[in-house]
Design goal:
five-stranded antiparallel β-sheet; transmembrane helix; membrane; transmembrane; Integral membrane protein
Length: 215
């Protein structure tokens, strides 16, 4: 136990957010300020024809949901420490121990902007980790190399055959990204193309055979 704790402590946390929160924080700040301004304006306008309590309520109804949404998005963050996935939400934090996973699946949401994610289940808890998203035009965004490496290493410690297979898939993706391979040569992109051909209702869960075929 102490050895495992030491390893987790020695490895610095690695972010698993597909888009770093720092990139969209300014946009969310502007969105919150704009929503607050609209809410205040609505309250002042309503105060000309209604009592202040009613006007204040109208202002809250107009502005508060957007402000709350922006605040919630700013708080959301995902990272990995050792073999533990941490997902911070608006209230609280979810932790999933990958080495103790009871289920590992690769899901694809095919659309004009297709998403491919990893779903890790440990007991009653489940967490979605975004791996990549691709557009019809052949562009997209993929999880950075360090995140892929840490996920692959953590999955390799699991006793599940599915987890080991997905670990191998991520290693192949890691190598493809490292050598800047074309999208057609990247396993995650090929997985999305595979799901699009099926023309199925999302999400599409890859079978063990399909995961193995991508490596």
């Amino acid at each position: 136990m102490s050895s495992n704790s030491g390893e987790q402590h020695a490895d610095p946390p690695v972010g698993l957010d597909l888009v770093a929160p720092e990139m969209y924080a300014p946009m969310l700040r502007r969105l919150a300020l704009a929503a607050a301004g609209i809410g205040i304006g609505s309250a002042l306008l309503a105060a000309t024809v209604a009592s202040w309590p009613i006007a204040a309520t109208i202002g809250l109804v107009v502005g508060a949901p957007t402000v709350g949404y922006a605040f919630a998005l700013r708080r959301r963050r995902m990272w990995m420490s050792g073999t533990m996935i941490h997902a911070r939400r608006l209230f609280g934090e979810r932790r999933i121990e990958v080495s103790a996973a009871t289920g590992v699946e690769v899901l694809i949401f095919p659309a004009r902007l297709s998403r491919i994610v990893l779903r890790v289940t440990a007991g009653e808890l489940s967490q979605i980790v975004p791996l990549a998203m691709y557009t019809d035009a052949g562009s997209g965004r993929e999880l950075h190399l360090l995140g892929l490496r840490r996920l692959a290493d953590a999955l390799a410690t699991s006793q599940l055959a599915a987890a080991v297979a997905v670990s191998a898939l991520l290693v192949h993706q890691l190598r493809a990204e490292a050598r800047d391979a074309r999208l057609a040569e990247r396993p995650l992109y090929r997985a999305v193309q595979m799901a699009r051909v099926k023309d199925a209702v999302s999400p599409v869960v890859l079978t063990d055979r399909e995961v193995a075929a991508l490596t």
